[in-house]
Amino acid sequence: MPVVMDADRMGRTLTRIAHEILERNRGVDDLALVGIRTRGVPLAKRIAAALREIHGDEVRTGALDITLYRDDLMRHAVGAQPVIRRTEIPFSIDDRRILLVDDVLYTGRTIRAALDALIEFGRPRSIQLIVLVDRGHRELPIKADYVGKNLPTSASQSVQVRLLEIDGRDEVEVVG
After folding, report:
1. How do residues 81-124 score in pLDDT, each as one tens digit?
2. What is the pTM of this model?
3. Where are the beta strands (DSSP E) in the chain?
């Protein structure tokens, strides 16, 4: 399958999302970006950089590990140990507008787990969801507030997001 988003398009998409965030929130006061590990974290940092470039103010960023909040944790092979990474939210989320960032929205189960994990850290004023790709096939009633690209897929396909910080290149590809 062809690459559906290259580095240039990804950059333009994240800049567009930053503009949408500013318009919807009327600035960056009390905003914070929290990326879901793994690829949500660099996306959150890129959006924060775009917001700083457009608006001039810093927006705090954090990283959220949802491993222990997943509802499929016990479905993995017997004896398999989940890889737990650090959650790093070096600020209070109380009364902030949190922008939760992930790479792909699929069934909604990752976002449900992220919401559970995030609420353990406090009581935000609101939570808005940003995804680079929405591929459909929801199992839970979850909808993104900001979508980089709607990408209808079949259940047998997979969406591969590659980011420079992790994979050495920026691209989105549909496989299968």
Report:
1. 667 788 999 999 999 999 999 999 999 999 999 999 999 999 99
2. 0.93
3. 3-5, 31-36, 60-64, 97-105, 126-134, 146-150, 158-162, 171-175
For 34-85, the pLDDT digits (tens) are: 999 999 999 999 999 999 999 999 999 999 999 888 877 655 544 566 677 8
Residue 69 is given by DSSP the state G
* Contact in structure between 117 and 62 (CB atoms under 8 Å): no
129 vs 142: CA distance, rounded Å: 9
Over its C-alpha atoms, the chain yields an Rg (Å, rounded) of 16
Walk across the sheet containing 31-36 and list its strands: 60-64, 31-36, 97-105, 126-134, 146-150
Joined together, the tokens standing for residue 56 give: 């001039």
